[in-house]
Design goal:
alpha/beta, Udp-n-acetylmuramoylalanyl-d-glutamate--2,6- Diaminopimelate Ligase, Chain: A, domain 1
Length: 350
């Protein structure tokens, strides 16, 4: 990470911040964070796995956050802060090394404010933001350039919208929600009645709401549809990556993690603490139990039990999927052996 704008922090301060044990000089200072192989004399780095030990031994980092088993390594940077989990320790360190810029409240002169819209000061409404009618903004709301907030939208305290976020009418956004650039909330779900005898498909009106609970973060260019007749709801603390599609009437529980390019079809219910890996696909009207995990490119077409880990398409128990894959690879060798046997038999009959 670039050191631009970062402050200097000593090894002693890092130990205090992370609750770690300092090995080496307390006055060694850092002003940036970098991986072991690219860190320089002014950088903090981290060692969480034995596989990166060779990089640690050659690293030029000033200070390294490391697990206890690496504290006494003979080679590598001598100044170390020993912590149970270096990645968790970084969460405490990064905001100190890279403080967020102070934002200035105010309404930009190019913003368009609809009738009867209101907010609680302070807020920051950026260039070319459009607020429809009867919009309600809480305290400390920040709307980046080009955001469009439709009629009747409600946004809670401390919400942060990056540029070009769009909230369709009737959307409700909770407190401390972060929406990255290009997020679309409350767009129409995909609902049509197929046409007969060459007629065009008939659109089903989408009249439900899109509700985002507190402490949700949604990645760039993700789309969350409004409900058709019910509501689409994203539970508190859930984090959604870039380029995710959430269909109409979907209900996602609390503290879920949904990785990039996942797709969740309409009327699916996702329990609390579920993890959907990248490019996971979930069919409509499916229930995924609490704490379940769907691995990369898993295709869910039926209900998933709570706590289960599933893989493949159609998604099944991860262990079963691995066994099936192993059997398939062994089958290749069996086919090779059969083909060799057939060739040998043909040659002996000539």
């Amino acid at each position: 990470m670039s050191a631009a704008g970062a402050r200097r922090v000593t090894a002693g301060e890092l130990a205090a911040l992370t609750g770690g044990r300092l090995v080496g000089a307390a006055d060694v200072a850092v002003h940036g964070i970098a991986p072991l192989d690219r860190a320089g004399p002014g950088d903090l780095s981290f060692l969480a796995s034995k596989r990166y030990l060779p990089f640690f031994q050659q690293s030029k980092a000033a200070v390294v956050l490391c697990k206890p088993q690496f504290a006494a390594e003979a080679s590598g940077p001598p100044c170390r802060v020993v912590v149970p989990d270096p990645h968790v320790a970084l969460v405490a360190v990064i905001p100190v090394l890279y403080p967020q810029p102070v934002w200035e409240p105010g309404v930009h002169r190019t913003a368009v404010i609809g009738r009867a819209s209101a907010w609680e000061d302070p807020v920051a409404i950026g260039p070319h933001v459009v607020l429809g009618e009867r919009v309600r903004l809480g305290k400390n709301v920040r709307l980046g350039a080009g955001c469009v907030v439709g009629d009747g939208v409600e946004i809670g305290d401390d919400a942060l919208f990056y540029p070009h976020v769009v909230c369709y009418s009737g959307t409700i956004v909770g407190n401390r929600v972060i929406l990255h650039a290009g997020v679309r909330l409350g767009s129409d779900g995909f609902g049509y009645v197929p046409g007969k005898n060459g007629e065009l498909p008939q659109k089903i009106p989408q009249v439900g709401r899109c509700i985002i609970r507190d402490d949700v973060e949604v990645g760039a260019n993700t789309t969350i549809d409004r409900g058709s007749v019910d509501d689409t709801v994203i539970g508190p603390g859930t984090k959604i990556d870039n380029l995710v599609q959430v269909g109409h009437n979907v209900r996602i529980g609390a503290r879920c993690l949904v990785a990039g390019q996942a797709g969740i079809a309409g009327s699916t219910h996702v329990g609390d603490d579920v993890f959907l890996a990248g490019q996971a696909g979930v069919a409509d009207h499916v229930t995924i139990g609490r704490g379940a995990r769907v691995t990369v490119q898993g295709g869910v077409i039926g209900d998933i039990e709570p706590g289960a880990t599933v893989s493949g398409y159609p998604a099944r128990s991860h262990r079963e999927f691995l066994r099936a894959q192993g059997a398939l690879y062994r089958l290749v060798r069996v086919v090779d052996e059969l083909e060799a046997l057939v060739r040998a038999t043909d040659e002996s009959q000539r």
